[in-house]
Amino acid sequence: MAITNTGMEDLIRDGLDRLGILSSTKKAEISFHSASLFELYLAKLPDGSRLAIKLIPKKEMAETEAEGLEQLCRLGVRVPECLGTVHLGKTSLLAMEFIETGSSAGFRQDLIASLKNLYRTEFGSWGWKRDNFIGSLPQTNGWFSTFSEFYWERRLKPQIELAQSRKLLTDKDFISIQTIFQKFAEEWGLDRIQPRMVHGDLWSGNVLQAKNGHAYLIDPSVSYSHPEQDLAMLQLFGSPLNLEEMQEILATCGLEDPANLKDRIQFWQLYPVLVHINLFGASYLTSLRHILRYYGMK
């Protein structure tokens, strides 16, 4: 679908010019590519190369997404090359390598290799150096010495309170989620595990299957957390990996009890389900109620 809005074309060309990608004397063919939370455009440059151009409403969103991509790349994760961000009035532009998707052999093994690289390195604290975003929602971070404090104070509790303020959850829901979290964080010894870098928003739509046989991760929301958080989210909307492959990833990275992952998946899905309640409304309450019942809460 080609753009017919000349102003949008000029905006994107201006951004590419400011990033030093496109001279103002040259033209790029701009077309609309897709939209979910944000619009994505395709820029075909005079030399035939193509870029993905993401328009993001907040400067901080663009900066933290670019920062996340660069962090994953440093750890040996396959991501689109990030070419920079620029703020343009009421929107920000993030320019990236364009990944041509399609069915390919080798995709699953490439994804497994990237995730093993991502989770291999231990870190001394839980959290991240700056706040970022999960979808379009703010995600606060900071540094914590224990998993329990980090995950409750910076992940579950803010989402519960936001949903309560919108009359989507009750005080009983708050208590039920808190009870589940405290019980299993202690029972599973999650405070004894060293934090690892996680993608943070690893649903199947953020894993691109490229025609070249590689798997590319996009739209990260990074922090030092527990890898099971990523793998459980990958299961939420149809994972490209099966349970045995995910257990292999955890075992290779030296994490305890990978065989118990099946029983933990819904625990870790509490956070993304709460995020979806706040992003999309009451339609996701059924998923939350299912998790609460699974862990004995009515």
Structural overview:
This protein has two domains: 6-97, Phosphorylase Kinase, domain 1, CATH 3.30.200.20; 107-294, Aminoglycoside phosphotransferase (APH), C-terminal lobe (Aminoglycoside 3'-phosphotransferase, Chain: A, domain 2, Alpha-Beta Complex). The longest helix has 19 residues, at 147-165. Helix 9 packs antiparallel against helix 10 (285-294). It is globular and about 65 Å long. It is of the alpha+beta class and 298 residues long. The protein is 43% helix and 19% strand. The strands form five sheets. It has a five-stranded antiparallel sheet, sandwiched between helices. The protein has a two-stranded antiparallel ribbon with strand order 6-9. It has a two-stranded antiparallel ribbon with strand order 7-8.
Main features:
Phosphorylase Kinase, domain 1, two-stranded antiparallel ribbon, 2 domains, 13 strands, 10 helices, Aminoglycoside 3'-phosphotransferase, Chain: A, domain 2, alpha+beta, 19% strand, 298 residues
